[in-house]
Amino acid sequence: MFNFTLLHNCGKARAGIINTDHGDILTPVFMPVGTLGTVKAMSPHELEEIQAQIILGNTYHLYMRPGLDIIRKAGGLHKFISWTRPMLTDSGGFQVMSLAALRKISIEGVKFRSHIDGSLHHFTPEFVMEIQQALGADIIMSFDECPPFAATKDYIAKSLNTTLHWAERGKKAFTNTEHQALFGIVQGGVYEDLREKSALALMDMDFPGYSIGGLAVGEGKEDMMRITNFLNDILPKHKPRYMMGVGTPSDLLNNIANGVDMFDCVMPTRNARKGSIFTRYGKMIIKAARYKEDFRPIDPICGCYTCTHFSRAYIRHLITMNEILGMRLTTIHSLWFYQELMQMARKAILENRFEDFLAEMLPVLDTIVE
Amino acid sequence: MFNFTLLHNCGKARAGIINTDHGDILTPVFMPVGTLGTVKAMSPHELEEIQAQIILGNTYHLYMRPGLDIIRKAGGLHKFISWTRPMLTDSGGFQVMSLAALRKISIEGVKFRSHIDGSLHHFTPEFVMEIQQALGADIIMSFDECPPFAATKDYIAKSLNTTLHWAERGKKAFTNTEHQALFGIVQGGVYEDLREKSALALMDMDFPGYSIGGLAVGEGKEDMMRITNFLNDILPKHKPRYMMGVGTPSDLLNNIANGVDMFDCVMPTRNARKGSIFTRYGKMIIKAARYKEDFRPIDPICGCYTCTHFSRAYIRHLITMNEILGMRLTTIHSLWFYQELMQMARKAILENRFEDFLAEMLPVLDTIVE
């Protein structure tokens, strides 16, 4: 079961609800990334506590390790990792391009060697559907080529044709439509004509949702927002839009303002483990000497486990000592904040004051907390 | 407040209760080790869930990092780390001997260089009391020299005199007797005459509890048990006995059989993080290929978070991938099992069937689960 209802617009910003077999998702939504079948440092129970509505798994990584056989025998990814709420898997395209070695891309698919043991693999659009059906996420992605930012427009145009061909083949190969929703991925770099071509061709194929790929790869925030703004007018209003691999709290708000509904990014979790914590006051670099004897919580008005139990001084000590609990506590807060930010954005949209909300939040989010 | 009540004997094995300002402790008890102010990989909430009654902090490590100033300003170690139940700190003696560089031991104390930055420090029995009073644990230790197993009997005899002198000075310097209990540490290596001398001299000073130090340093299980058995007849019945740095599940049971009440060890936590898990069936080496597609819990009849939610195959995947959640889940189970083992031992003592319990448990505890 998959259904999206657009509940309200405030400017271009949208509030909606997605229904899936594993529960509902209120949008806009941020999805924590569980690369290898775990959102790093978090337990499923804690993910529920930080109010994660849906998490992401990486097709490429899970296919490599533990491998499809094991996940199939476990009864799918949900059961394997003990997660009962909705899940999304990506297409593996981005990892094949960024991690795998000796790639040979053809119209058939991509032949590559594993970044782990050098073994040879062949991802075709059909095989990527087979993998994602075995994983069993509620939302899955078409196989795509994600060209690097440095690619020429000619290359991106050619690559786009391949991706569109793959989207068609994937859609044909995908049979589990009753339980999973397959999204098409809009590519086309920073070029509006290519983005338009990509979006229209995918819309012809009629996917239940559309992903925006190939951004946040180095193009800069202005180009990123120009493209989401451009696509907002093209993509159908009554289908969800998922912006892949983005981003900072301000990226999320700026792209919600451009009509995006869904986001995922490793940033809150990865940065947290290194002691860079996202807060409503900006980024807190917890190793800074100023926190040595600061016995206040990270955020005095935050309700997360970290902020209701521990001081900056203690978390600084743990992170400095490379203690696992330090990485856990910073991750908990950053993910809680991301969820809260999305809840606040949604409320502001529903109450027709998203622009004010943006104006209030944006000036501080990218600062460093002093 | 500190009080120990011996409730029942079954052979030499003892069941009792300790009362402290931060709550009661049922004995025999195992104390998870929180070296740097965190039981590695665990949150305080999870320590309560695995039913830890008391945890240990390391005086040497906490003195080095974050340092006394910060913990003092935080209002003590309990507040700094957000732990509300009882706590015990060691004397720092063992770490000074095993970690610090350029040690100069005299009757005054130990001058040494930090293992972290080479800075010069001087631990005297009085200063170690000052540190431990600032940390504020419910149970604290006399400063002692813990000679290496390879030391000669002559050296150990001489060292013992120093330790006794330090015990006397520490006891005199210790003033916070209303809220903390200071234990004397019995040393003397594997030599019964030295152990007897040590125990009797400390008993003359009348400590509220006695630690057995200098074992599990390489002497072998037979010597270890010979000494605890020997000390059982000497140490006063109505004071708790704490065996420092021990050990495996079978070590615990064997020494409970010799009248020991309290234990601490990094083994369950350290081994767990490497994928070696203690269970009632023996040690489970979770990386073993046999667990690749084993979808049963670590222990099907265990009630811990790990065993009620996750499979061996998933935990194997996480540990193999070096994922934090893997280390968390194995630590949770191993600590839960240690607590459960102590609860089972206590029940067996109270029900006058400790010998049968030993006979049932010991043959399997040291095996590797097949």
**Could you tell me the number of beta strands of chain A?**
16
Query: Can you tell me the overall shape of chain A?
Result: globular
Number of domains of chain A: 2
Q: In the CATH classification, which architecture of the largest domain in chain A applies? A: Alpha-Beta Barrel
Fraction of residues of chain A in helices?
A: 40-55%
CATH superfamily of the largest domain in chain A: Queuine tRNA-ribosyltransferase-like
- Output the structural class of chain A: alpha/beta
Polypeptide structure, described:
Two copies of one chain form a homodimer. Chain A has 370 residues and is α/β, with parallel strands linked by helices. Chain A folds into two domains: 264 residues, TIM Barrel, CATH 3.20.20.105; 105 residues, no CATH class. Chain A has 15 helices and 16 strands. In chain A, the strands form four sheets. In chain A, strands 6-5-4-14-13-12-11-10 form an eight-stranded parallel sheet. In chain A, strands 1-2-3 form a three-stranded antiparallel sheet. In chain A, helix 7 packs parallel to helix 8 and helix 10 runs parallel beside helix 14. Chain A is globular and about 60 Å long. The termini of chain A are far apart. The mean pLDDT of chain A is 97. At the A-B interface, helix 3, helix 13 and helix 14 of A face helix 3, helix 13 and helix 14 of B.
